[in-house]
Design brief:
The structure is a single chain. With 488 residues, the chain is an alpha/beta fold. It contains 12 helices and 17 strands. It is elongated, with a radius of gyration of 44 Å. It starts with a strand and ends with a strand.
Length: 488
């Protein structure tokens, strides 16, 4: 907006019409005092100020405006019909004006000057706005950097207090902080701890995958400084992100060597115990079967019933021992997979028939749905059968009040998914992530049903060796759907 200051209303009217016709917004004041009041309340882009006015003249108004912070940068054009001499024009510039026009005013000259100064005002205003924005941005960034530095210092203090090896890296994986535990396995901050030859590529592979922003969790063996001793550590490295960008990584290496040694002793014990149990158990089972065949004609005798129970319990114990043997082979790498073309549809049907016959005392219905498999797939038939038997037997066992189980198969994008759905008790949501863990059993089921919690873990390992995945979907009271996938 442009302020026109003149003690004569006809001059104000003439100037307003000239400017308004060119799209400028105007305001007016009839005296110097009135102009000062308006300038304190309103922001103006330009002031056209008459020099000769009663009371406070134009020079005094300009000097007052130039001495006030709010108004000192407003451009002023003086208009004068009398004071045309050089000394008056000079006084105008000295009092704060930027131009001096004598009357009568040439409208075209006035408009050119107004347009120029108005454009300069707009540019100055834009620059001021940009300056204010940049100052605010700088302050915000300085504050953010200060807060980040404080948090980083807190993090470093926390990491230094940890009993584990702790470190941080920049976004490119270059180590920039380590705690004292680091130097037990590395000579300096710039060198990573030396790894066992079998684990040697772990950190290099992680660096190649930084852009994926995926956390790393892996068991490795670190070599102690100045010794030939390797100790197991669990490495965990997680990204710290901001605005979808990884700005740094935080890692720990926890010593799990004692736990690994205890696990090895436990696995050795299980292996020996299961092998030692296998021989007498086979004999018990064989003699029970011979006795049952011998007493076939006396099946109503009490002794026959007792032998039948002995045989059933021996069979259950045999399955438990078999699980122990399988888990022992898994730990030692002895569980081999023999991949060859197999008719999976035939295996599924065989397992379904076997399950129905085994549970002849129930009116069991195992429904076959989904895509029928009319082509061979590459798998280990015995191990896949073992997985299917485990899934189906669990579906029947943990759904004692339902006689319907669904076996579904689907093929999508060269991946086969096999699902076993029951209508049993279901699994609480917080326990689902642990279902395939070794020795894990859902507490609600462990009271009612026997088992070691090894079957599903063995299934997962078998499917993993086939290049597939295992999973479960479940709701308490509505049943569960266990599934596994295989490449086809």
């Amino acid at each position: 907006m442009i302020l026109i200051v003149d003690d004569k209303q006809e001059n104000i009217y003439s100037l307003e019409k000239t400017l308004q016709l060119k799209g400028f917004r105007t305001d007016s004041a009839n005296s110097g005092e009135d102009a000062l009041k308006k300038c304190l309340k309103t922001d103006y882009a330009l002031i056209i100020l008459d020099v000769q006015m009663p009371g406070m003249d134009g020079y005094e108004v300009a000097e007052t405006l130039s001495g006030t912070k709010k108004t000192k940068d407003i451009p002023i054009i003086f208009l004068s019909a009398v004071n045309r001499e050089k000394k008056y024009i000079t006084k105008g510039y000295e009092s704060g004006g930027i131009d001096y026009i004598t009357k009568p005013v040439d409208p075209d000259i006035l408009l050119l000057k107004v347009k120029t100064f108005y454009r300069l005002y707009e540019q100055t205003f834009a620059l001021q706005q940009m300056k204010t924005y940049l100052e605010s941005e700088v302050q915000q960034r300085q504050k953010a950097q200060s807060e980040l530095a404080e948090k980083l210092q807190e993090l470093n203090v926390t990491l230094e207090a940890l009993p584990q090896i702790a470190f941080t890296t920049d976004g490119l994986g270059n180590v920039d902080f380590v705690n004292q535990q680091w130097y037990r396995y590395a000579p300096s901050k710039d060198n990573w701890p030396e790894l066992h030859p079998d684990d040697a590529d772990v950190f290099e592979i992680w660096k190649l995958q930084l852009e994926d922003r995926q956390p790393l969790q892996k068991e490795v063996r670190l070599k102690e400084n100045n010794t030939e001793n390797y100790r197991y550590h669990l490495v965990k490295i997680a990204p710290v992100t901001k605005d979808l960008k990884t700005i740094r990584w935080v890692g720990t290496m926890t010593d799990i060597d004692e736990r690994k040694q205890l696990e090895k002793k436990k696995d050795d014990f299980l292996s020996v115990a299961s092998h030692e149990l296998k021989t007498p158990l086979t004999s018990i089972k064989a003699f029970a079967e011979i006795a049952l065949r011998t007493m076939k004609e006396s099946s109503n005798h009490k002794a026959y019933g007792y032998l039948a129970k002995v045989h059933d319990q021996a069979q259950k114990l045999n399955l438990l021992v078999q699980d122990l043997l399988d888990i022992s082979r898994l730990e030692t790498g002895g569980l081999k997979i023999n991949i060859q073309p197999v008719d999976l549809e035939k295996i599924i049907q065989h397992v379904i028939d076997t399950t129905v016959m085994t549970n002849h005392h129930r009116k069991l219905q195992i429904l076959r749905t989904g895509t029928r498999l009319n082509k061979p797939i590459y798998a280990d038939s015995l191990r896949i059968e073992q997985v299917l038997i485990n899934y189906l037997s669990n579906a029947v066992k943990y759904a004692p009040n339902s006689d319907v189980v669904i076996v579904d198969t689907q093929i999508d994008d060269q991946v086969l998914t096999v699902k076993i759905q029951d209508e049993g008790m279901g699994i609480p949501p917080h326990k689902i992530p642990f279902v395939f863990d070794k020795f894990f059993r859902v507490q609600e089921a462990s009271v009612q049903f026997q088992g070691l919690g090894l079957g599903l873990h063995i299934c997962k390992e078998i499917i993993t060796q086939h290049g597939g995945l295992c999973g479960v979907e479940s709701q308490v009271g509505q049943g569960s759907t266990f599934y596994f996938t295989l490449p086809v």
